[in-house]
Amino acid sequence: MVRADHRRQKKKLIEAARWWATGGAAQAAQFSADCAALNIQLPAGFEQPATHFVVDPENWDTVMMFVSLSTQWRIVGMGDVIGLDYAAVDAVFRIRRIKNRATLFEGLQVMEEAALAAFREAKPK
């Protein structure tokens, strides 16, 4: 049961990171604006992009930490994002006096990997 809960929690962290990395609410708003500008009426039952993302309570601290680190990405070359700056992560942990660092860091790495995958998918080829 614990393993299943951990997998579910990890899956939700991945979804949250992808939501953040792909523009989330901004994309949904743009979709709605585009449809209105083009006078497109969507068919009944069509699911529009979500305008919000629900964070489970057990993931709240990790997601909030991830969002607070949004300016701490390492970027190299021609704008390639290679990951979070772990020195900055450690500094934030210390500044905020975070106690459960190992657990929180594990969740951050799950979200980091998901965000990097989303960045790679969105990069023009």
Give a structural overview:
With 125 residues, this protein is mainly alpha-helical. It has one domain (2-122). The chain is 60% helix and 7% strand. The protein is built from 5 helices and 2 strands; from the N terminus they run H-H-H-E-E-H-H. The chain has helices at 2-21, 24-37, 60-68, 86-95, 101-122, and strands at residues 73-76, 80-84. It has a two-stranded antiparallel sheet with strand order 1-2. The chain is globular. The mean pLDDT is 82.
Distance between the termini: 42 Å
Radius of gyration based on Cα positions: 17 Å
3D shape: globular
**Which sequence of strands runs across the widest sheet?**
1-2
Our count of domains comes out at 1
- What number is the mean pLDDT? 82
Give the tally of β-strands: 2
Query: How much helix is in the residues?
Result: 55-70%
- Estimate what percentage of residues fall within beta strands: 5-15%
User: Helix count, per DSSP?
Assistant: 5
Largest sheet features = 2 strands, antiparallel
Structural class, from helix and strand content? Answer: mainly alpha
Pfam families: DUF1799 (PF08809)
Protein name: DUF1799 domain-containing protein
Organism: Methylomonas aurea
Give a short synopsis of this structure.
By secondary structure, this protein is mainly alpha-helical. The chain has helices spanning 2-21, 24-37, 60-68, 86-95, 101-122, and strands at residues 73-76, 80-84.
